[in-house]
């Protein structure tokens, strides 16, 4: 199946990706939940605006590890470029998270492709649903087991670094040859669920072109990983840069940076 | 839909009920082999922790001395440790002392069975054992279920440093290194020339990277390679009289670094790098592609930090 993933840039990567899969298997009944989970109906109502029509769509590709090796950093990549209908937002939900809504991506003039990381404590599906007016909601996803299995299974408990050190530091790069843009922000992304640590997370990140016009936007929520890195794909004209990145968090801090080709 | 429903239920059941109910352990059947005079190897399965192997995945070495065995690594569970202890008691006149090469659980979760005799490890290893015992134990209970019955991780009680040491009349040369983990102990048995490398060497099984520092690891390999040895026991994989484990481990570290460095430099995201699978020449090693998948998650940030320059900060 066609995808905008770049696995093929690595030796044997295309064959390995084909074997690895990514996303749900083709479904016989498009409006039945391939994960057969009770949360899906609830989350459609709560986070997707109760779309009148929806389908499980294997063209919504979702790459994840099969096991959450490191429960605080589970890498996810969503590719909706295989859809032929328009996409105005992509909503990421985690079925069995105490805070199920991870983020809402408004691709705008970027491609409907996004890489990010989430926290994952409980085995279950993560879903990416593409929404636009006048077309059915299209859902893809993957089941992630919360069991690790490494030599140090599970990932060794993390000691919390002092978040103020390097707080807000932004790293990034534009890759004109592939149109990729990657940006990382040092941020604790505290959920507020841990004792004595109030919620403090990024709420919004925007990409702007040289004229200051918006390219794409993300609304971020607590399940996104600490020190998040986001991966975008831009069309050739925008990939020439420069691109400005602006972000805000729940405590009113603002962050900005710029990448050039 | 029935197959999917079943698959999901299995996943959910794994989550909600203790796995102890699921695994029926047939016990540990050790196959000790005397690889040199008074040097016994109990080879681990060339795989990851799984109910099929009960966590018996790393190599255990026992050296015969006048006062019983010097046991190098104690196994992955209390029951595994007990089986190893039985062998030492029956065939080697008991246990003189036990050494833990590093803090990964497959190498020391059998310590309980050896607690009546000294258990030694590098100082940093002891600290990491204490610090991570609970998290490691919880993870292994979930993976191994009943095999873990009675396992209460017991960190090594005694610190050792590099240098020569005599136990039960047998001389040992200890090398304090790092790279696979923060502290890796390797041993030379000068009597036979056997090098017991711990997880600094892997053979025919993909190296694991949860705590790896690739540059330090290469430095440790240089130091070990300078030691004349008649035979080499890797942490995982078969005993060999040649230096194949050195060549393969070094080549794997280089190829892994090259693949992740390239991926980060091309703008790939970690999920893509993972799905692209291991380096083709190492795809067939034991525990791959799973070990490669884990390694991408464990080490990705090291490569990303190098690939992404500073572009801004708080406005
Ligand atoms: Zn190890």
From TrEMBL, chain A:
<feature type="domain" description="Ig-like SoxY">
    <location>
        <begin position="46"/>
        <end position="151"/>
    </location>
</feature>
<dbReference type="Pfam" id="PF13501">
    <property type="entry name" value="SoxY"/>
</dbReference>
<protein>
    <submittedName>
        <fullName>Sulfur-oxidizing protein SoxY</fullName>
    </submittedName>
</protein>
<feature type="domain" description="Sulphur oxidation protein SoxZ">
    <location>
        <begin position="180"/>
        <end position="259"/>
    </location>
</feature>
<dbReference type="InterPro" id="IPR030831">
    <property type="entry name" value="Fuse-rel_SoxYZ"/>
</dbReference>
<dbReference type="InterPro" id="IPR032711">
    <property type="entry name" value="SoxY"/>
</dbReference>
<dbReference type="InterPro" id="IPR013783">
    <property type="entry name" value="Ig-like_fold"/>
</dbReference>
<dbReference type="InterPro" id="IPR014756">
    <property type="entry name" value="Ig_E-set"/>
</dbReference>
<dbReference type="InterPro" id="IPR038162">
    <property type="entry name" value="SoxY_sf"/>
</dbReference>
<dbReference type="InterPro" id="IPR014880">
    <property type="entry name" value="SoxZ_dom"/>
</dbReference>
<dbReference type="Pfam" id="PF08770">
    <property type="entry name" value="SoxZ"/>
</dbReference>
Automatic annotation (TrEMBL), chain B:
<protein>
    <submittedName>
        <fullName>Quinoprotein relay system zinc metallohydrolase 1</fullName>
    </submittedName>
</protein>
<dbReference type="InterPro" id="IPR030811">
    <property type="entry name" value="SoxH-rel_PQQ_1"/>
</dbReference>
<feature type="signal peptide">
    <location>
        <begin position="1"/>
        <end position="23"/>
    </location>
</feature>
<dbReference type="InterPro" id="IPR036866">
    <property type="entry name" value="RibonucZ/Hydroxyglut_hydro"/>
</dbReference>
<dbReference type="GO" id="GO:0016787">
    <property type="term" value="F:hydrolase activity"/>
</dbReference>
<keyword id="KW-0378">Hydrolase</keyword>
<feature type="domain" description="Metallo-beta-lactamase">
    <location>
        <begin position="57"/>
        <end position="236"/>
    </location>
</feature>
<dbReference type="InterPro" id="IPR050855">
    <property type="entry name" value="NDM-1-like"/>
</dbReference>
<comment type="similarity">
    <text>Belongs to the metallo-beta-lactamase superfamily. Class-B beta-lactamase family.</text>
</comment>
<dbReference type="GO" id="GO:0017001">
    <property type="term" value="P:antibiotic catabolic process"/>
</dbReference>
<dbReference type="InterPro" id="IPR001279">
    <property type="entry name" value="Metallo-B-lactamas"/>
</dbReference>
<dbReference type="Pfam" id="PF00753">
    <property type="entry name" value="Lactamase_B"/>
</dbReference>
<keyword id="KW-0732">Signal</keyword>
């Amino acid at each position: 199946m066609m995808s905008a993933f770049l696995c093929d840039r690595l030796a044997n990567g295309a064959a390995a990706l084909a074997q690895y899969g990514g996303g749900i298997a083709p479904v016989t009944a498009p409006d039945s939940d391939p994960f057969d989970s009770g949360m899906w109906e609830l989350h459609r109502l709560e986070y997707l605006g109760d779309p009148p029509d929806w389908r499980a769509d294997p063209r919504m590709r979702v790459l994840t590890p099969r096991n959450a090796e490191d429960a605080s950093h589970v890498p996810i990549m969503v590719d909706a470029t295989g859809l032929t209908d328009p996409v105005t937002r992509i909503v990421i939900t985690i079925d069995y998270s105490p805070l199920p809504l991870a983020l809402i991506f408004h691709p705008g003039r970027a491609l409907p492709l996004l890489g990010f990381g989430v926290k994952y404590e409980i085995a279950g599906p993560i879903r990416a649903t593409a929404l636009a007016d006048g077309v059915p909601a299209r859902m893809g996803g993957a089941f992630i087991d919360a069991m690790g299995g490494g030599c140090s299974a599970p990932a060794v408990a993390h000691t919390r670094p002092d978040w103020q050190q390097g707080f807000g530091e932004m790293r990034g790069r534009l890759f004109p040859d592939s149109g990729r843009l990657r940006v990382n922000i040092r941020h604790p992304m505290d959920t507020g669920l841990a004792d004595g640590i109030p919620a403090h997370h990024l709420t919004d990140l925007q990409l702007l072109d040289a004229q200051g016009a918006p390219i794409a936007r993300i609304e971020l929520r607590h399940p996104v990983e600490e020190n998040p890195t986001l991966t975008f794909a831009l069309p050739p004209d925008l990939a020439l840069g420069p691109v400005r990145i602006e972000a805000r968090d729940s405590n009113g801090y603002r962050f900005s940076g710029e990448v050039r080709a | 839909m029935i197959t999917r429903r079943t698959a999901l239920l299995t996943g959910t059941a794994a989550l909600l009920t203790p796995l102890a109910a699921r695994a029926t352990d047939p016990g540990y059947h050790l196959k000790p082999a005397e690889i040199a005079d008074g040097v016994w190897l109990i080879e681990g399965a060339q795989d990851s922790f799984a109910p099929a192997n009960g966590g018996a995945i790393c190599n255990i070495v026992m050296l015969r001395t006048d006062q019983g065995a010097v046991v190098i690594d104690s196994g992955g569970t209390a029951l595994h440790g007990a089986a190893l202890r039985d062998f030492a008691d029956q065939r080697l006149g008991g246990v003189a002392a036990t050494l833990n090469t590093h803090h990964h659980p497959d190498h020391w979760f059998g310590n309980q069975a050896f607690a009546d005799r000294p258990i030694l490890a590098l100082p940093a290893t002891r600290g990491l054992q204490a610090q991570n015992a609970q998290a490691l134990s919880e993870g292994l209970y979930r993976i191994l279920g009943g095999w873990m019955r009675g396992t209460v991780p017991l960190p090594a009680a005694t610190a050792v440093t590099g240098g020569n040491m005599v136990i039960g009349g047998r001389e040992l040369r200890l090398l304090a290194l790092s790279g696979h983990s923060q502290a890796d102990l390797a041993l030379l048995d000068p009597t036979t020339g056997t090098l017991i490398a711990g997880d600094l060497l892997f053979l025919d099984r993909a190296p694991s990277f949860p705590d790896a520092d690739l540059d330090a690891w290469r430095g440790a390999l240089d130091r070990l390679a300078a030691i004349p040895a008649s035979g080499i026991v890797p942490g995982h994989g078969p005993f060999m009289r040649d230096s194949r484990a050195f060549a393969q481990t070094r080549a794997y570290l280089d190829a892994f670094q090259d693949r992740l460095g390239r991926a980060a430099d091309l703008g790939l995201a970690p999920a893509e790098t993972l799905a692209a699978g291991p380096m083709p020449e190492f795809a067939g090693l034991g525990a791959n592609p799973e070990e490669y998948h884990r390694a991408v998650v464990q080490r990705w940030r090291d490569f990303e930090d190098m690939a992404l320059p500073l572009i801004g900060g708080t406005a």
